[in-house]
Design brief:
The complex is a heterodimer of chains A (about 280) and B (about 450). Chain A has about 280 residues and is an alpha/beta fold. Chain A contains 12 helices and 10 strands. Chain A starts with a helix and ends in a 5-residue tail after the last helix. Chain B has a 3-stranded antiparallel beta sheet with strand order 2-1-3. In chain B, helix 4 crosses helix 6, helix 10 packs across helix 17 and helix 13 packs across helix 15. The radius of gyration of chain B is 33 Å and the shape is extended. At the A-B interface, helix 4, helix 5 and helix 8 of A face helix 14 and helix 15 of B.
Chain lengths: ~280, ~450
Amino acid sequence: MDMIAGKVKMTQQTVNTAMNPTDAIERPIRLTAKDVTVHYGQKQALHGISIQIPDRAVTSFIGPSGCGKSTFLRCINRMNDTIEGAKVGGTIKLDGEDIYAPDLDVVELRARIGMVFQKPNPFPKSIYENVAYGPKIHGLAKNKTDMDEIVVSSLRKAGLFEEVKDRLNEPGTGLSGGQQQRLCIARAIAVGPEVILMDEPCSALDPIATAIIEELIDELRENYTIVIVTHSMQQAARVSQKTAFFHLGNLIEEGVTEDIFTNPVNKQTQDYIMGRIG
Amino acid sequence: MTDTTLSNTPRALSERSQRVRDSLRRRHATEAIFKGLGIGAIVVALGFVSILFADVLSKGIPAFTQSNLHLSVTYDESVINLDPAPTRADGQSDADFRAANLAWQRSVAMLNWNSVVEASLRAAAPEGFEIDSRQIQSIAETNARHQIRDLFVANPGLLGQTVEVDVLASANADNWIKGNIDRELGDSQQQLSAPARALIDTFEENGTITSGFAWSLFSNVDSRAAPAAAGLAGAFMGSLYMMLVVIILAVPIGVASAIYLEEFAPKSRLTDLIEVNINNLAAVPSIVFGLLGAAVFINYLHLPLSAPLVGGLVLTLMTLPTIIIATRGALQGVSPALRQAALGMGASKTQMVFHHVLPVTFPSILTATIIGVAQAMGETAPLLLIGMNAFVASVPATPLDQATALPVQIYLWQGNENRNFFEARTSAAIMVLLGFMILLNAIAIYLRTRLEKRA
């Protein structure tokens, strides 16, 4: 226990020097979920999740496979709508506005809440077109110069510009796995979202690419509210300020990352962090 | 399983590896049998294909050459004795001039052009060769007189002059020259009389008859009176019009239905029922579509018989299920990651389909479509039921004109009574149809590889 806590502390210090861990919960609340349930047909996948997600901080969802953390993440930008037979209950509010309200346009919602998926999934188009796609469909660029600017600054923010500036017209699928994932992040940033959801963004990447993405997440925190689902407790400890532990469709415990990893209140959280369940 | 089977004693180990070896032997034997069967099947299939090709090519290639007669035709004033062609007088109305011209053409047509043909054939024959009028005329194809007449109508100044004209040798003469008829058979079994056969041989020696490429096969329409002049132009145009109708109707309707069913339609009993029906429609015999076409398009909607438009409509009905099934298959093959990426960016469902899913599936949809169209082009049975097996001696100018189609033309020639001439023509028509199909498939392959490279 001490060993893990020590390790967590160390990484916290190396990455999170800019922010006091307790800052996270003192920040204004961006997203509020209340009693969120999800049914896939007869099967209930989430049992009343209530959580508040702070602005401009990284919130991580951890838990064993099938615990519902990805399902909950997908509720936040209504990606569950696309799954046949999925039924979502409860309320999720973004800045006090119910995202499941009948008059809310899901297209607009997804422009405000971007998503990065587990497997890098760039469009089979050029790097430029990948980033330009979102601004194009949402009508964000007035002209070509505008668009160029958006593409370049998005790629810059995703830390990819220097690597790809000479081959913007080459297919995005030709990049390495880590570059592809950063391209997907650039693509998400390009529409100027307020929240970025990341569904295990590093699980298909090697350790070096993972480290680069983690650094990137830490930088993005300054401008975006980030929610990340991860399998790796070390990753949650390294990048997030707030952590929520899910188990069997329930939110077991949430709090400041430091506290969750050092002083978990719940027995199940303790067991998971100690590696006794997983 | 007992404890010994999982133990690590040397005895148990060797026993286990022995078992693995035994099972390996069985596996390899199964593989060898399967491989042998596969190779056998391919050899048999290739054998049949090569027999087919050898047969079609050996029979069809001779039909691409044809015997021509080089004749010196004299427009003899004693035969062509009529007023000069009307010239337009001052103050004559258009209608009057046309009427006068038509009357003149009618009188031209009434002349005995056969005697002109006969005279030019006799001029080419050796001095004093004894042959009667019917016999000598059987050497040139019956359309020779029309050809010579048309030259005169186009240029009335030929009167009294002698010009060189190439006409086709008759089908029987062509058979004799190509050796399609046993030369040893007696007179009673020959289609040409003895003097005619002798004269043909003489013509061949003195260069009056030469063999050349059979352009008429491509430029002429079907003909029964003049078999040697029968060609595929009408059938080819008929097929082309039908293909246009199928492409214009079946492709957009089929692809759009597939996209709707696959991407937008809610999963319900109704859509399940539709899906089952589409799959069954693909297996309906094509002749049933012909019956449907006859009942709906001809009896009910009163569209013209034998029209490529109706043929195209029937083939559209037949091709739709194929295109829908192939397109749905292609759409199902698109990775969910791409769909999620698009939706996650805030694309609407329509944008997702048209910006991302369709471009990715376009090559396979295109290939499936072209193969479906090619299949439709080779279809005969449904066309028989809507009257496209009629004898049509003109090139259709519009899809509403009477026409026939390439496969139907093959069917018609196959049944022609002049067997030893039309056997070769039939095979030649098959070669043209196959060439057309190969061209379509080549286009499909070319487009697919090109588009896949770009994607």
